[in-house]
Amino acid sequence: MNLEETIYKRQSCRTYNQTPLDEQTITDIKTFISNAKVLNENIDWSYDIVTKEKVKSLLRWDAPHYLLLFSEEKENYKENIGFIFQQLDLYLQSKDIGSCWLGMVSPNSSYEYKNSQHKFIITISFGKSSTQTHRKIEEFNRKSLEKIMDTSDEKLKPAQYAPSATNSQPWYFTHNSDGSYNVYREKLGFIKRRMIGKWNPIDIGIALAHMYITNKDTFKFYIKENPKDLKDYSYMGSFEL
């Protein structure tokens, strides 16, 4: 499968064969990351691939590999991480390698990272799955297009199938008269904000990655100076397809 096809078949993997991937596969993963498109070229980011001995997890299952993601803190830094590494998530699953975004896994006290200027953001688990890694499109549980945009638009369908923290799907899209789009993030109540608020900006980047993958030659992201305010939503950026 190519990455666009994988959008409509991917599923988060939580059951892994504990055998590590071979060195060539890890090298190919690193090569893909180095060539991934970024959302904001002015942000310095980094990653590390570690085993379960280097992470602290609140989950009841393990994976053979964990990708620890780091970034300097600048505008859109969380969206940038989501954007870059959702491309990798799709790449892994296109190669029949299971993966899952993990907000409940972080570096443990035995882990030492050399770049002290970067903040830890989130983790992705990956490895060969011991169960099926793909699903049928009718098995997705997603909001309808009408609930995530001002006017139903099939061009935005790839974003509808993006993964998000607790499947919160916090994105909302609006159309501009020049054919461009705005993306907003839902404002959360106190409880949800404490539970998933720090991850929802990453989710926006993940959704934008799906839009890039399906419009590689024309996708362009930017920030407007005076965006339109929407009740119950925060402006996150604009893009062209």
Describe the protein in words.
The protein has 241 residues and is α+β, with helices and mostly antiparallel strands. It is 25% helix and 23% strand. It folds into 2 domains: 3-127, NADH Oxidase; 141-240, putative nitroreductase (tm1586), domain 2 (NADH Oxidase, 3-Layer(aba) Sandwich), CATH 3.40.109.30. The chain has helices at 3-7, 23-35, 77-94, 157-160, 190-196, 200-213, and strands at 45-50, 55-57, 65-71, 98-102, 105-107, 119-127, 171-175, 181-186, 220-222, 233-240. The protein has a 4-stranded antiparallel sheet with strand order 1-3-6-4, covered by helices on one side. Strands 7-8-10-9 form a 4-stranded antiparallel sheet, covered by helices on one side. Helix 3 (77-94) crosses helix 6. The protein is globular, with a radius of gyration of 17 Å. The model has no long low-confidence stretch (mean pLDDT 95).
